[in-house]
Each structure stands twice: as C-alpha cells, then as structure tokens.
Amino acid sequence: MTRALLLDELGNERLSARDKGVPERAFGMAVTEFLASDPRLSEFWTPIVTLDDEAIENNLTVMAQWSASHGLELMPHGKTTMAPALWQRQLDAGSLGITLATMGQVRTARTFGLDSIMLANAAVDDRSLRYLATQLADPEFRFVCWADSIATVEAMESTLREARTPRPVDVCVEIGAADGRTGARTNAEALEVARRIAASDVLRLAGVAGYEGSLAHDRSDESLDAVRAYLQRQVELHDVFHDLYDDDGDVYVTAGGSAYFDLVAEAFASAIAADSRTLWTLRSGAYVVHDDGFYRGISPLDEGGAGPYRLRSAMRGIARVVSHPEPGLALLDGGKRDFPFDEGLPIPRQVASDLGQEWAPLQDASILAMNDQHSYLGLTGENGAFGAQPGAIGTVVALGLSHPCTTFDKWRYLPVVASQGSDRVVDLVRTFF
C-alpha cells in the first residue's frame, strides 16, 4: 500500500507574476488561500491551459477498472504530468506506483514521499546511483529499473558496491527491436543480461520490460502485428528467465504506453491466468487527461469508440484573438511556448466573447501554423470571419490539444475547472519540470 504523498507544501506556495496566466489579485496569496476565495477562470489571463476535473475523475476510474478487468497492475508514467497531486489521484485510484523516466524525476518524486517507483530507463551515472543507495535504506521504498546490456550492469555494480547499497537494486531486462529505442536487440542478448544480473551481489533480476510504442505510430495491420510480436517476445523471455528468478521480491512483466495497452492485455492474457506471482504491469500515463489529437486517434478507449470504458479529453488551451489582418486569418496570443505542437497542431473547438461567457461551436476553422507566441487561425466560413460571434478582436478560442506530455511541461500551474465549460476553478495543478 503506497503512502500518501507530502502535498501540504504545494498548498503553501505563494503565487506571483512568475506564474503564467494567474490573476493579479492572487499575487502573494498561498495556493490554498487563493482556492478558498472562489476563483473563476474568467479572472485568468490568456493564453492558458485548463484541466477538467470531471473528465480527469472519469479517466482515473475508467483506466483503473479496465486494468483490473484484465488482471493488470497499473504504474502510470508520471513524466506525462510531473504533477504530484495528479500522481496521488492515480495512486488513490489503485495504481501500484508511479513510473518515471530519469533519476532526476525519481529524486523529485522522493521529496514528496513517493515510495513505489519504476524507472523506465537505466541508472548508470555515479551521482544518481549513490543517491539511489541512500534511498534504499528506507525499507518501505519499492524501486525497479531497467538494463539492456552487460555494460549497463557493470556500471551499476561498480558504484553500488562502493556506495555499500543496503540491499540489491531490482532490475528488469529491457528488450528492444531493430531501429527501435533502447533494449536488448535479440533474445540471446537479453538472456545473457538476465544471467549477469541474477549472478550479481548488488542487483536482483526482477523481470522483463519494454516499450512497444516505439515500434509503431498508428493502427495499421503492419503496426499492430509488430507490436503483438514484440509483446509475445516479452512473455517468452519471462518464461525463459523462470529459473533465474529468486523468491525474495517482486517480479514484473511490464509494457504499455498509452496507445496499445489493449494489445498488451491480449498478449499477456494466457500468461496472467497461469502466473499469479508476476506483476503484469501497464505504464500508460497519458490516459489521465487523454487528448483531442494523437491519443484520441489511437487509444483503444477513446470516447468516440464503443464499449463501457471511455476516456475523455480533460485538457484544452484557451487563446485570444489579437489580430484579424485579412479575411480568413486571425492571430491568437498563444503559440509554441504555450501549447503542444509535436503530435499535431491545436484544434479550434469553441469561441466566446470572453472567458466566463457562453461558448459556441467554432466551425470551418483550423490552426494553420504556430510561432513562439502566436497561432495562425484559418477561417474558411462565410467571409472568412467569425460569423455570428460578436467582434473578432478580443474573442477567446478554446483549442483541443494533442499530446499531454508536451502540454504540461509548458506550465508551472494549470487551473482545474469543475467541468468543461465551467468558470469555477477548483484546483491549481503544480508541475515540476
């Protein structure tokens, strides 16, 4: 059972002009004090990214129920949000722990008391390994990382021995694929690494790991076949490693970005039924806010699909029209510094005369391009204008966003509204990038 994170200090932080979009009256106030003052989104400056509390709660429930129904544990990838308050909500929904991508992120998480961490990466440098050795003195701390080569194992062993680690570090063998990301390229290489870890005095073999999302970027037959074959390799290697595992701790088989976790459940199903000791673990992270772009198009649980489990987009950007230089073109005051663009440009959804006013659908519009601080809003409707909406200059546009991982890293605080379209701010989510 994971402990509650140490979040009180977040509520005690003072807001200031350093916090993009925060209303001026909040300057000098503690976060808890500001939230107690009944804040409204209409007070915030544009551009801004908002989160939808109702949709987040839906997504937490959906993913927890879906994972449990397939016999899967969930250790969601915390690098998606780097927001301890959201990690706590994921833990409260039943997650086994939180996955992170770097030892720097692990250190941040440990300052909040997170006691169950998977590092979906290798830890090889002297500084981070010495730090890890100090953390392992906490008997409540669950930690597992990955290795994909003998060189990685040797780098870990050298420092951990010098640091006199109080207990061995749990390590999963990471498998990869040609032209993919990290990971042992062949089963023979993976087995060699596993044997080396199992023989170590400062490491402990803890399973098989991998990231199938690096092999595909769509749901074509070719992509799905590649992902299935990769996942089957994980199951096969786990069986091969059987005699190398000890009885002293957890064993994992872990996969699952936010795009193909349905295939993970399919590939692991028979093994899950036959092996109750192993923690068959998903690391999907983007589900907590989903999106209107990449994940909406590729996730097996998008709200546009069928079935009882549906994820909803819980984030949107809001920007203001600051220029209407010619018919068919308006410029918004938010750009690459504010909104993600690496997995598709923002999608215009709604327009209003100002924040706090009634939203109306925005038809025949698209984002054509983005600069650092501007987005080019193309208008193809009647006369290339906003139609019935009053006054183009100064109006606000709600944008669907694509890719949570490159949304959160642009914001120190993100206001959380009660539900989509609501003006009531119920929380401020603090990030640590």
TrEMBL record:
Belongs to the DSD1 family. The keyword Transmembrane helix does not apply. This is Amino acid deaminase. It comes from the Bacteria. PANTHER family: D-SERINE DEAMINASE, ZGC:162816-RELATED. Coiled coil: none annotated. GO terms for molecular function: lyase activity. Keywords: Lyase. SUPFAM superfamilies: PLP-binding barrel. InterPro entries: Ala_racemase_N, D-amino_acid_metab_enzyme, D-ser_dehydrat-like_dom, D-ser_dehydrat-like_sf, PLP-binding_barrel. SMART domains: D-ser_dehydrat. Pfam families: Ala_racemase_N, D-ser_dehydrat. The keyword Lyase applies. Residues 314-418 form the D-serine dehydratase-like domain.
